[in-house]
Each structure stands twice: as structure tokens, then as C-alpha cells.
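Structure in, sequence out. Go:
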């Protein structure tokens, strides 16, 4: 097989700005708020949305239907990455940061206002579908804008570290969403929680969105986009350019990232429903187990990102996939014990495998694309992984776990996705600028063109680098 050209690397070396910490913090805060919006729906779907919005279904069917509306958000995310990616590549990264946050925040507040099935009948689940779709649309644009804000400002030898700030956002957002749910669950009766308590986290999204907009109001446009605008080299049709020239890279990145999504939502969403419904674990206990594992995952994110700056993005991704592959059966076995310590250990093992790869993708994906199509390419590839791994996992896992025995089918399903991701990462090239220069030399055409922002795109990445 003929080897493809090397990826569009390196990004321009940008001297560290005194405002780098401020930019990264604004990026993290916005990502945390948007993922809070997204996760609070997943927690509600696992706990209360089934009986409130699908009361005529059996408990299993109601949970599946609630997870179906949960999955709609993932289906909308690639569309959001296309819409906001076009804005980011044509008009700048900054408008993406503001528009995506506003859209997701408004949709989340509206979810908290939707009457239940008992009040308005079938209109209730239909409204949930529409609002969940809008949530996904906004989140699909958030990630690309957030990581490019940091990656395109950061010095190349610390790009992985700074670009990991947005990757900490999902953990922070999850802890915010579930911390509020845990507090309400522990302080309210079951009747109060089902009546109005579950709505409070959705309403709080409005306050958080306003705070995020205030933090992002003064963020600076990235130097690479300013260079593109000044020289007139912006892409007229970034999606068309990405699909036409780099469709294989999109499919590989989507497949590669799918296990990270699958493990995260198996741990944070499916296991919550399974433990409370099948194992009769108190929901407060299970939420505490999951939150402990997610908090440790968030703390490990910058550590793994620094390792990616030193040793390369691809090796960490391969190790992360391998960890997920070998941990899925122990995860199910530990979850089945119903013991809080062992369940926490099971969740933590899966999330550590996930974060080993996801800590570096904030730098990895942007480095695969030339600046003119980077916002679209990186965001679409990232969110395709969400469709493959995130949208289906709670639904498939819930169906596979039906019955009284251990849900080993869930472990088989997750292991199969891990194997797929491992193969995809093996076919992607290394993108760490220092390692690429060490292999190819500083004067290569691809490195020079990408470094100046004049490259035509990334490699199709067909062969291992």
C-alpha cells in the first residue's frame, strides 16, 4: 500500500502569550458548562424521564425510550460541528465559542420547563426530542471552538497540555450536573424529586450559561485564523473540502474515538440505570461512586496530556484503547458486586483507559488538519466518534443487560468497540511536532506548508507513522 503524505504539521510556533492561562481557563469553563447541560439530561434519563414522559411503557421500555431521546443529542452533534465548523473556518473561532454556548444553555433551560406526559400527552416526549437535538447541535460546535482557542494560541512544545484544558471540561460538567442531582436526590423525597426536583439542574443551566458568556466575552481570535483572514486563504466550503480530500481521515478519527465515548457513557449513564434498577443500589450511592471515578479522571487529564507532549499523541491513544479492551470484563464483574468501593474501582479503571487517549485529542485532531479547514475537520471527526460510541451505548447496553444474569454481553460489545478504535488509531499518524521533525526533518514540504497555514489539508493517514 502506498504511503500517504504526512499530516498537516506542525502548527505555527506561537510564543506563549501572557493571557494563555486566561484563554485556557475560559475554554475550560465554557466546555464544562456545555457538558453540564448535556450530562444533566443523561442523568435525568437514567433516573426519572422514563416514567414521566413514557408512562405507558414497561420500566425497561421506558428507560430505552428515555435513552433514545438521549441518543438524539449525539446524532445532532455532527450536524452542529458542520454548522459551527463552517462558521469557525469562515468567520473565526470566537463566534463559535459564544454561539454554541448560548444555544445549548437555552435548550437546557427549556427542557426543565417541558410539561410531562400526564399534562400534554405525546407532545411532551416530542418536545424533549427537539430540545435534546438543539442541545447536541450546540455541543457539536463547542468542542472545535474550545480546543482551537487553546491549541492555536499555545506554543507547540506545550500544545497538548494547554489543549487538555477543554478536555477537563466534561469531567467538571459531569460533577456539576451530578453533584446537583445528588444533593437534590439526598434531600428530597422520591415524590418531590419526581415532581419538580429533577427540573432544578436544568434551570440552573441558564445561570451557568450567562457566567460562561461573561467569561468568554473578551477572548481573542486565534493568530492562525487572523493570518488566514489577512491573506485571503480561508476556505469557501470547508465541509466540502474536508469530505472531498480527507474523508478517510474523518472515518478513522470517528472510529478511533468511539471507544472513549462508549466507555464514558457506559460508566456514567448506563451503569447508573443498571445499578439502580437491576441491583437495587441506592441512586445516591451509585452517583457517588461514579462521581468519584470521574473526579479522578479529570485530575489525570493534564498528566496524560503532558505525557503526550513528551512521547507523542498516538502511543498514548494506543495504550488507552488497550486498557479499555482488557478492562471491560472486570468492569462488569466489579459492577455486579454492588459494593461501593468495588463499583468505584470498576468505573475508574474504564475511565483511566478513556482519559489516556482523550487527554491528547485536543492537540491531536487539530494537528491533523491545515488551518483553513481545521475547525470543521477536527470537530466533525470528534463528533462522529460520539455517534458511534455515545449515542448507541446506553441503548444497546440496556437491551443486553435485560435479565437476571451478569451482563457479559455489554462487556463483549464494549470490547469490540475498543478493538475497532485500536485498529483505527494504528492507522493514524503521529502528529507531535517535535517527533515529526525528528523523523522527517524540519524542511519537509508538508511541515512547512502547514506551519505557515498554507497547506491544503491533512494526510489521509492510511499507514502507521
Amino acid at each position: 500500500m502506498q504511503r500517504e503524505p504526512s499530516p498537516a504539521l506542525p502548527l505555527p510556533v506561537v510564543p506563549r502569550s501572557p493571557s494563555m492561562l486566561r484563554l485556557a481557563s475560559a475554554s475550560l469553563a465554557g466546555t464544562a458548562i456545555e457538558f453540564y447541560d448535556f450530562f444533566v439530561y443523561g442523568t435525568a434519563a437514567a433516573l426519572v424521564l422514563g416514567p414521566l414522559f413514557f408512562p405507558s411503557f414497561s420500566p425497561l421500555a421506558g428507560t430505552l425510550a428515555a435513552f433514545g431521546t438521549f441518543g438524539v443529542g449525539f446524532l445532532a452533534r455532527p450536524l452542529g460541528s458542520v454548522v459551527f465548523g463552517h462558521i469557525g473556518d469562515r468567520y473565526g473561532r470566537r463566534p463559535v465559542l459564544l454561539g454554541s454556548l448560548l444555544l445549548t444553555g437555552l435548550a437546557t433551560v427549556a427542557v426543565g420547563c417541558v410539561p410531562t406526559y400526564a399534562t400534554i400527552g405525546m407532545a411532551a416526549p416530542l418536545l424533549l426530542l427537539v430540545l435534546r437535538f438543539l442541545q447536541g447541535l450546540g455541543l457539536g460546535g463547542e468542542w472545535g471552538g474550545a480546543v482551537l482557542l487553546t491549541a492555536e494560541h499555545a506554543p507547540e512544545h506545550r500544545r497538548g497540555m494547554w489543549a487538555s484544558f477543554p478536555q477537563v471540561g466534561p469531567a467538571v460538567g459531569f460533577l456539576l450536573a451530578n453533584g446537583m442531582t445528588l444533593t437534590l436526590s439526598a434531600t428530597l423525597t422520591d415524590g418531590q424529586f419526581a415532581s419538580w426536583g429533577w427540573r432544578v439542574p436544568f434551570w440552573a443551566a441558564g445561570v451557568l450559561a450567562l457566567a460562561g458568556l461573561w467569561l468568554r466575552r473578551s477572548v481573542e481570535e486565534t493568530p492562525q485564523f487572523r493570518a488566514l483572514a489577512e491573506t485571503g486563504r480561508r476556505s469557501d466550503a470547508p465541509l466540502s473540502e474536508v469530505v472531498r480530500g480527507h474523508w478517510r481521515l474523518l472515518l478513522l478519527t470517528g472510529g478511533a474515538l468511539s471507544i472513549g465515548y462508549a466507555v464514558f457513557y457506559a460508566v456514567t449513564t448506563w451503569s447508573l440505570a443498571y445499578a439502580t434498577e437491576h441491583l437495587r443500589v441506592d441512586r445516591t450511592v451509585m452517583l457517588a461512586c461514579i462521581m468519584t471515578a470521574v473526579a479522578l479522571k479529570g485530575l489525570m487529564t493534564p498528566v496524560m496530556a503532558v505525557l503526550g507532549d513528551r512521547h507523542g499523541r498516538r502511543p498514548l491513544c494506543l495504550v488507552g484503547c488497550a486498557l479499555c479492551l482488557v478492562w471491560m470484563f472486570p468492569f462488569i464483574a466489579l459492577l455486579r458486586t454492588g459494593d461501593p468501593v468495588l463499583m468505584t474501582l470498576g468505573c475508574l479503571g474504564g475511565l483511566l483507559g478513556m482519559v489516556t487517549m482523550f487527554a491528547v485529542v485536543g492537540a491531536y485532531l487539530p494537528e491533523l488538519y491545515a488551518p483553513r479547514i481545521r475547525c470543521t475537520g477536527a470537530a466533525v471527526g470528534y463528533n462522529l466518534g460520539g455517534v458511534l460510541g455515545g449515542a448507541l451505548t446506553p441503548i444497546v447496553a440496556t437491551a443486553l443487560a435485560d435479565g437476571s444474569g451478569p451482563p457479559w454481553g455489554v462487556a463483549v460489545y464494549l470490547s469490540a468497540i475498543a478493538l475497532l478504535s485500536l485498529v483505527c488509531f494504528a492507522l493514524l499518524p503521529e502528529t507531535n511536532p517535535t517527533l515529526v521533525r525528528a523523523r522527517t526533518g524540519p524542511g519537509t514540504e508538508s511541515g512547512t506548508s502547514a506551519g505557515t497555514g498554507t497547506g491544503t489539508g491533512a494526510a489521509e493517514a492510511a499507514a502507521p507513522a
